[in-house]
Amino acid sequence: MSARTSVVWTPEFLRYQLSDDHPLNPVRLDLTMRLARELGVLDGVELLEPEPATEEDLLRVHEPGLLTAVRSAPEMPFDVGHGLGTDDNPIFFGMHEAASLICGGSLLAAREIAEGRADRAVNLAGGLHHAMPGRAAGFCIYNDCAVAIAWLLEQGYERIAYVDVDVHHGDGVQVAFYDDPRVMTVSLHQHPLTLWPGTGWPAELGKGPGEGYSVNVPLPPGTRDQGWLRAFHAVVPSLLEEFQPQILVSECGADTHSEDPLANLELTVDGHRATYQAMRELAERVAGGKWLVLGGGGYSLFRVVPRSWTHLLATVLDRDLDPATSIPADWTAHTTGLTRAPLPVAMTDGGDPTFSAWGDGEADRVDAGLVDARRALFPLHGLDPDDPRD
After folding, report:
1. CA-CA distance, 82 to 128, in Å (whole number)?
2. The Histone deacetylase domain covers which part of the protein (predicted)?
């Protein structure tokens, strides 16, 4: 385990439950922590308990009207607007407190790094990347990713890279920093023609002084591990090497998996593991080892998210798990009481995350999106979009 890694966790995170049958069910967090403990990933790790984000913290990103609406919505007998009371974002009691606590968790993780107590820090409950300045969106009440980044900017950070590997476009974070050259937002996601929120085109480059610092790589439905990793490595390392961030912030949604019910990519937990390891290597190589890790989407609650995010915790803590590791019997017994779905028996799907690099002379169905991204962004950073060495 890295001696300078912090893990933020409290069972109070489980209070962020939008409704009993909402797809964003906090059981995924509980099952992840149970699995990580039973596999020894968290042995000797002191879990840090956060405080809720303050109003000042939230107002770095959000409009006062949204905070007022979120606080008052559970007591209001009528429509409060601001994206609340929809199927995606139903109103629930304690909504402000629960959402503020998740933001507080991401702020604590950021503070651990900024104040020198850790090089890496993780908040699996975070990654609520869709919330906009004035409205909730996409299961996200407040945008903890943007709140943490805004706080880091106030501490004097001048170059922050945000890499979002959720299946949905990281639209809320992009909007928050669209004109700010201090933050490079990078999102790889299912093509916007085929999935909500319908944004995340390569031509969304940023504006004003932020032009060139919003990066979007759309991927076709059916993309598998090999194509996804090909696209990631064809775009992300070159831009981050040129940008030289002082910290890497990662949103690690697990909803790119083939079993996820809300999207149409075809990755495995083996592909997820390879992605997390690639981001760890990037953090070490281009960001001085500073890596803030957040959760995100993921709606295969019992079979996918716990395994994927246990691999994520293991990666952050330098306790990489052999994919062939068996699922502990106690975890299976507990989870069997929660679902009728057959449960996995190992930490692998049998996936093969090896890939052929872009520019190797072969073609892949992901190439259109990655080439569009390279041609839109690379010239703005002095890179040759057609040279695979860049």
Report:
1. 16
2. 22-315
Backbone angles phi, psi at 255, to 5 degrees: -85, 10
Domain that holds residue 317: 5-381
DSSP 341: S
Overall domain count for the chain: 1
β-partners of residue 164 are 187, 251
Rounded Cα distance, 199 and 182, in Å: 22
Banded pLDDT at 77 (limits 50, 70, 90):
low
Report yes or no: 370 and 234 within 8 Å, Cβ to Cβ: yes
Segment 280-303 mean pLDDT: 98
Tallying the residues shown for the chain, one arrives at 390
| Alpha-helix residue ranges (DSSP H) falling in the chain | 27-38, 55-58, 64-72, 95-114, 144-154, 171-176, 225-243, 269-286, 305-316, 329-336, 367-377
Is 130 an active-site residue? yes
Phi, psi of 250 (to 5 degrees): -120, 130
CB-based contact 313:268 (threshold 8 Å): no
- Say if 331 falls within a structural domain: yes
Average pLDDT over residues 219-242: 98
How does pLDDT run across 18-54, given as a tens digit for each residue?
A: 999 999 999 999 999 999 999 999 999 999 999 999 9
Q: Which residues, other chains included, contact 296 with Cβ-Cβ below 8 Å and sequence gap of 6+?
A: 126, 127, 128, 129, 164, 165, 166, 251, 252, 253, 254, 255
Measured CA to CA, the distance from residue 181 to residue 247 in angstroms comes to: 14
Please report whether residue 102 resides in a domain. Answer: yes
Q: What is the pLDDT of residue 79?
A: 80
- Tell me the one-letter amino acid at 231: A
Indicate whether this model's pTM tops 0.85: yes
Q: Which CATH number does the domain housing residue 76 bear?
A: 3.40.800.20
Q: Which of 62, 130, 169, 257 is catalytic?
A: 130
The 10s digit of each residue's pLDDT in 328-369 is 999 999 999 999 999 999 999 999 999 999 988 888 999 999
Q: Is residue 386 one of the residues assigned to a domain?
A: no
Residue 387 lies in a domain: no
226 pLDDT higher than 90: yes
